Each structure stands twice: as structure tokens, then as C-alpha cells.
Predict the 3D structure of the following.
Amino acid sequence: TGDKGGRVVIFQREQENKSRPHSRGEYNVYSTFQSHEPEFDYLKSLEIEEKINKIRWLPQQNAAHFLLSTNDKTIKLWKISERDKRAEGYNLKDEDGRLRDPFRITALRVPILKPMDLMVEASPRRIFANAHTYHINSISVNSDHETYLSADDLRINLWHLEITDRSFNIVDIKPANMEELTEVITAAEFHPHQCNVFVYSSSKGTIRLCDMRSSALCDRHSKFFEEPEDPSSRSFFSEIISSISDVKFSHSGRYMMTRDYLSVKVWDLNMESRPVETHQVHEYLRSKLCSLYENDCIFDKFECCWNGSDSAIMTGSYNNFFRMFDRDTRRDVTLEASRESSKPRASLKPRKVCTGGKRKKDEISVDSLDFNKKILHTAWHPADNVIAVAATNNLYIFQDKIN
Amino acid sequence: MFARGLKRKCVGHEEDVEGALAGLKTVSSYSLQRQSLLDMSLVKLQLCHMLVEPNLCRSVLIANTVRQIQEEMTQDGTWRAVAPQAAGRAPLDRLVSTEILCRAAWEQEGACPAPGLGDGHTQGPVSDLCPVTSAQAPRHPQSSVWEMDGPRENRGSFHKSLDQIFETLETKNPSCMEELFSDVDSPYYDLDTVLTGMMGGARPGPCEGLEGLAPATPGPSASCKSDLGELDHVVEILVET
């Protein structure tokens, strides 16, 4: 997790408990470190927030773990490694650290590694700075494991993980005259298998797929995905709610999913004209759009995620609700992440929002929803049915019941 | 933000409102609502964070909404050009007042002004969702009258009204306005020239002295990529840090 204070906290799943063989291990804090600090841009007289916008793991290649974390302006590559041995028997210093007088040393010895209490260290290995004029909204590691992209409101840059003083600009939608600006980039991601392909979404509800082999500057897309607007539901808020807040490829690479304000859409990369699936997240908010515009909730950026087999998708909502959609059975469920609503290890009860008329028992009416409690970030374990849900300053880990 | 479970009381002044409104020219509630939305949007654009850069995506979406409203008003013929001198300081006052009116209007009508073309929506009561203003929220019919007259004098073309924002903001917060709509390049530090294209001349950020560990070869070979960690550990032991 990354928080507003610039901290990153890593959780690790413990080994399964022998006394409870049917339940998976619990997640506990593994490492905490300060990734970003607040900065001041002297040229513009503006603060640069330390808030972490995105974290992405690199594929693991050895005992250490690597991740990229970013705030609005700077991306950092962090290495998290374990140290459980220390060397003893140095020649030039004593065990307590005091320097030995070189003239007193009569023999050389080889230091011996001895076990010590496990220490988890996080160290910044690369800092990729000064490449974004606007706020970074996405980072995505390429399938070649050597490069990654970072996207801000108007530009996308390609980096090599080893090189920090240079990045290549691959998308630039900044108009010559900023007064003509009507569309911004909202999210970007590399294809999971084709290292030359990436997509980026826009505030007008469009997705562009680009192939880096076609030209150095991918201003012209290879594919353009947009669903035609439904004229019967058009309002002054249509464009705002069509703005895509997140785009995620399926693990298979065949599909991608986009999240706009009210729905989640699944697209087949082979069909640009419309999505193959549309799932309503909280359609009951459609009649409240004006209020949500006034209090700025309409600009909330929700993420979405796939499960490991691409058979289910998940996204967050308000009132600490999150929604899961099973693509095979076409069933969906609303669950709540809050301490009050569930005891540890108890099954979550499905929730229902009442949209009008009589409110049934256990239903909650739209007007009672707490719009301060928004679940913007969710994640699904790549192999297990374990999910992580971030609700304000609490992290919830849920799993499906075994047996 | 939203008061949970608060019931909105039906205030008994509604007959006053009706009486006053009857004396005005008939203006559809849609126009009123649309004007409220326009005013609210302009206020949102003006309220820039002084310390942190404003969210560009949000600003662009709000500006597009303003543009849409203006286009519709132009088609309606309700948008009249006016000399910019007439505007002066008035827009700022007008915006503040109508923001209060927005809430008052919703409270009066008990519905959220969400104008839609080919309006098929039933505007259900969303009064509980509208932010609960203080008890002093003015609900004067007079403000409706003012609302009617004010805009007629002060409406300009879209560019003019945005220009008014630019003027007001330039005196208050030049850096904020720059971020919204003008080119941020300055003669001293052209980020675009420096960064666009192949050569990045940007200084590396504070790196805590670890830059030196990056491999010298341009492309990482397998041996370079493999365990820098082991290398560190061994190096540390050798130099006895």
C-alpha cells in the first residue's frame, strides 16, 4: 500500500498455521518505508505532494523484491531485501566496531557469516525524476522486464529500468495552445505479453491502443475504442461520467477492462466499436450526478481488477462497498469493508442499495450512503481467491472460505 | 459531507417564493438550473488550490461542461454578447451569490438540477444529498430576481467569460491560472525542449549516491541484471563498511 504521507507498507502472508490447516496464512506487515517526501517546485511556487499515486511490482528475479512507486512527479525503484546473516571477524575493526590499530594486526582472518534476526531493508535503487510536467497517473512495467512507461495528463514516457537520466516520450497530446485543451490522458498500461503494445485511456471515454513499432512517437493509434453515446441518457454530465479512471488488461491479454464513473466495461481487443460486457457498479447514482458534481465526488477515480483466471472482476464504490462480477455466471455481489459490519473470519453478507420506494430490511437507501467512505483501490491475488481492499486508512484482506 | 439520516424540513416560506416568482418573467426551471450549473462550474474553476497544482483532468472536465452549457445557451439565444467593461468586478460577486442560490434553488424545488436533453428522468427528491448549508442559507425570492437580471448584463461570449476569470485570477494568483490554461513554458526553463525527443538533459534527482552502481554498458546483460544484492553484500564485507 501507498499512502498520502508518502509511505509504502508491504504485507507478507505468513506460512499456513499447522493447527488450522484449511485456512491460508495471514498477512502481516513485512516492511514500511518512506518512499517520497514533499517537495517544493521553486519555478512554479507550488508544492509537490508526497502522496503515492501508484505502486507496481517488478517480476521477481532473485531473493530481493523490487517495486516502482510514484508520486505526481517522480518515480522510484525500491529494492526490498532480507538480511539474516552478519559477518563477524573483521580484520580492521573489533566486534564492537572500534578500529583496530593496523600495526597491531599480526594475522589475517576471513570473516565468518553468522545468523542474525531477520531484518528487512528497503533501499532506493533508481530515481526517475524531472520527466513529467503534469501529474503522473500511471506506471506500467513492460513484459520485457527492462522497460516501463509513466503517464501524466498529457504525455507518456518510456523508461529503461537501469537508466534514470533519460526517457523517451512516446505519446504527447498537449495542444500547441493550451486553451484548446479538451482531453487528457487518465490511465495507461502495457500489454501483458506483447512488449510493443500499450493502451491509454482519456477523459472523453476513449481508449487508444498503440504499437511502438510503428513510429517513435505514438501519436497515431493502431486501434481506437469508443462506445457510441446513448442519446437518450445524454446530460451535461455525460462526458464527465464517461471519463475512464482505470484501464487493465486481462491476464490473457485478449481483453481489457475500463472503469468509468458508473460502470465497468470489458473490451475485446479485436473489436473497437463497443465493449463486449458492461457491468453497472452503482447506477442508482445517475440521478444524483448534480450533487456529486457539486461535492466533487464525480471526479473520484476508481480502480478495477481482474482475478487470476479472468473469470471475475472487482471494483470499489461508496459507503465502503465494493462490487464483484462473475463473468461466467453473470452474477454480481455488493460487499462492505468495514469493522462494524463484520467480525473477523465471518462471512461477508451481501449488501443491497435501495433505489426508491420501500426500503426493505437490511437495505440501505441511496441518501444514507456515506460518500466520504470510498473504495478506490482493490487488488486480487494472481493465483488465489484472496482480495485486498483499501478503505480510507484501513486495509482489508478477504478470502473465500475453504470448505 | 453529507448528513446522514437528516430529514429536510419543508420550510413554510414557499408561498413567498411563489408570489415573487409570479411577478417575474416566466423562465423555465431548466434555464435556472442550467445557469446554476454554469455558475457552479465557474466557481469550481476559480477555486484553485493556492499551494498545490490543481488537478488538470478535473479542470478540463469542468471547462468542457461550461463550454457545453454555453453552446446550448447560444443556440437558445439566451446568451448575449456584452462589452467586457460592463463586467468588472461583478462576475465574482455574482458567482458567490448564485452559489448560495444553487443550494437554495434545490432546496426550494426539492430536486437536483440535472438538466438532460429529452428529459426522461424523474428528478427524485435528492434533498438529503444536497449539502446541508447553515441555517442562514438565504432563500430569498429577491435573489431569484437578481439572478434574472444579473446574468443578462454580464453574459459575454464564452471566451470573454473565461477571460474574466483569467483577469480576476491573474491579480490573485498568476501561477494558478498558468496551470489551468496557458503554456507553462518559460524562457528560462523549457521542459519540453529539454525532454521531448531523444536527449534528456535533465539533471538526475537526488539519488543518494547509488547512481554509480548502474552498469556502464548501455544494455543490461544477464550478468548485470542478476543479483546486485549479492554484489552489494560482498562489497560491503570487503570494504568493511
